[in-house]
Amino acid sequence: MPDAANLYLFGIAAALLLIVPGPNMAFVTSHALAHGWRAGVAAALGISLADLIMTLLVSAGMGAVVMSWAPAFDLLRLAGACYLLWMAWQALTAPTAQSAAPRPLGSTRKVFIRATLNSLLNPKALLFFMVFLPQFVTVGNASVVVQLSVLGMLLALIALVFHCVLALCAATLRKRLNDGPALRRWGSYGFAGMMTALAARLLFLERPL
Known about the structure:
Pfam families: LysE. This protein is mainly α. Helices cover 77% and strands 0% of the residues.
């Protein structure tokens, strides 16, 4: 286990990093605004699952392999960009419902899977875990793998709470805006634009040397 002081500092650092706007915040917010709070919470759960998976990869040393081998990095980057563009296309081509109820997205399970894949197919997220987690490992205190796992689980938990609150706030805002056909249409445009911007960000992402 990391010592108490490191856990305290880690918790503060993680919370501060989460409030900085980024891809995960955009993903949760856009889904909650477009489809309601259930979609936002499902996205939050998917992101936290991806955090746990990336923690395992970093603990096992697989993160360094992906980052150091150019073909693996580029494949991950391109796959992530294509997936985001596909989601943007889905949003643009989906029919606009005439009722004030949230547009059906298929199921919250689909949102959960999308959020998990979106995070896992982002090489920058894996790089973040490789750089951020080891800073709070105490040498000689316990197994490095155990410490990394504990830190990763704590980060996933903090992220889950933050993103769930964010989803509920976005869904509340959605209701107050009196969701009508025009608003839903512009919500789809906004969601598609956000996914396209994130895809472009991945396409131009360079592998760290």
